[in-house]
Structure formats: structure tokens, C-alpha cells
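I would like you to sit down with the pair of lines that follows and say whether C-alpha cells and residues agree.
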Amino acid sequence: MKKLILTLILLFAPALAFAAPSAKPATLTPQDKADLTRMENYLNGLKNIAADFIQVDDAGGILHGEIAISRPGKMRVDYEPPDKDFIIADGSFVHIWNDDLKSQTNVEEGSSLAEFILRDPVRMAGDVTVTQFKHMPAKMEVTLVQSSDPAAGSLTLVFEDRPLLLRQWKVIDPQGHTTGVSLQNMSQDVHFIPNYFVFIPPNFSKNSTM
């Protein structure tokens, strides 16, 4: 199974139930807190969006594709051919199709970091903890972990500023591997066709033999 699919399963899987060290929150200035509120308001204003993406992992693997998000709870990821894998979050479960194995994996969306931008409302507090906040020229980065299990991985959101725009997210999984997703050509207020976020396994029966 591709590392990509394994990584996504780990990100969507609920945290294991064991005692974990508490997350160490970042020291935030009043301006940081104001910027976090701006980020929350921006993300909560995103309802139906679509974008092209480039995914890069720390082994040098690069994948291209399209991502669609309908908040709350729904997402579809399609990879460019010849890759036929795809992922659908339908509001309750994440369905991951592995075309190499002609098989699917279903996991609950739960409250994992991968579900963070799909929830409504988005809050950078409570079950997530801000562990780092960086200001750079025309850019800001905020890193989040699960408050109950910071060792389960981290999510870093990268925003352009003035105007505020989500450009990238980076995930570090529990094994320390990094995967970055950069968004391009984002469209808002997109009208999605019915059943766009319903998982339908590909029909490969025509390739089977009697």
C-alpha cells in the first residue's frame, strides 16, 4: 500500500487511548491572539471550495491532484492520472480507495487533526493546542497538536497575509515524517453536483473473468 494512503489513515484514525504528556502551548502575544481570531474567522467563512494541489513528502515523492471541501465535514481528494486513488470524507467516515489493491479503507473522521479544517466551527483551542506561531514577511504559520495526545502528530497551517489566504498545510505524523500540501487556483462558493461527497467504489467488474 502506498505511503500516501498509510499516512492518511494514520492522520484520520482516532488517537489511541493511553496516557500521553500534555501539550505545551506557545506563548502568544496580544497580536498573535488577534491573528488567530482572524484565522478562525477566515476558515469558518470557507464553505464550498475547490483547488488544485501539489503534495510533497520528505522522501521526495510528488503528487498532483484536486481537492474539494464542503464544510462542515465533507472533502474529496482526486489524484492526477495515472494515479487512481481517491479519498472521500462524507461527514461521518473517511473512505480511502487504493486502486492498486482494488480495496477501500473506512475510518471515522473523529476529532483528529486531519478533520480540523472540516469542522464547524473551527477553533484553535480546546481539543487542539497551538504549540508554535511564526510571523514572516507577508506570511504566518500556526502549528497545532491534539491537546489530549500531542505525540500523535502535528498540523501546520500556512497563510498568506493581507489579504489572509490559506496556502499550505504541513503534517508531521507520529513517526516524524512530513507531508506538505500546497494549494493553487482556489475557488470559493463552488456548486458541487449531488453525491459528489458520497463514496462509490469504482466499477471494475468489466475487467473480471467468469
In short: DSSP finds two helices and eleven strands in the chain. The first helix runs from residue 3 to 12.
